[in-house]
Sequence to fold (330 residues):
Amino acid sequence: MANSRPIVVSGMRPTGRLHLGHLHGALANWVRLQADHDCYFFSADWHALTTSYDRTEVVKQSEREMFVDFIAAGIDPERATLFVQSQVKQHAELFLLLGMITPLGWLERSPSYKEMRENITDRDLALYGFLGYPVLMTADIILYKATRVPVGADQVSHLELCREIVRRFNFHYGPVFPEPQPLLTEAPKVLGTDGRKMSKSYGNAIDLGESAESTTKKIMGMVTDPARKRRQDPGNPDVCGIFYLHKVYSTPDTVAWVDANCRTAGIGCVDCKRKLLEKLGPDQERMREKREALLARPKDLDDIVQLGTRKARDAAERTMVQVREAMRIG
Fold:
């Protein structure tokens, strides 16, 4: 019987603890999607090697923490399939086959390739794996016949490369894969402690469930409006990372209060940060308690991931049977 629910595939690289940007940029949306989609959420450990090939111990260590964060954030293993990319070898097989038909120029024009080369200067990115990661990403998505991929508006161009590869494959070998459509998500903007987009790579993140002491220290040290040098100077909340976090955590009344009083110097940046911590602090503490409870049951967590990985492997092999037949190599 044909699957009546849309299929969604998405993953994250296990290169460190997940942070507030992951929660509000992806995880919160994944929690909503699992209600009426068949969801595959995975640890993209092979993708992690594109920037952390010399730190593989960090990848494996981070993987458990990441699955803990998934579940603590609300992902239900009964409704979504959680698995490890490298334990489903069909990802590598399809990646290789797609790489045979993907023009080099398509990869060199990738927006994320250019962005990361410009922003990450402390690691060697002049690698075949880093250049070719969109092909592996395509394999990840279409291996499960995904029809929708949750992305922000700024990521639509990345998915279009996946769709181009699918069209090229189907042209040469027949209509094996559906073209995955972007499932646009209105993710709130979350800035890091230095005013740039919150990212593990930039070292400006606040981790999920980080301790109250550490969360407070990072919030109180966050960059705000650089033009507001004195307490009596009016500020511009539209350029302030603290204000973006208020939009996520605070009530509409509080957001309006911060907006008005920042612009008129009615409050200082310290006041604004303390007001944010009134809501962010307890939220972080609840997340910390959930994480600790899950980490205390490592076997239960392992069983969840192993079961999900077996389910993913079965679905992947069904697809690869079709691929090999279409290409006449099976």
Notes: The chain has a mean pLDDT of 93.
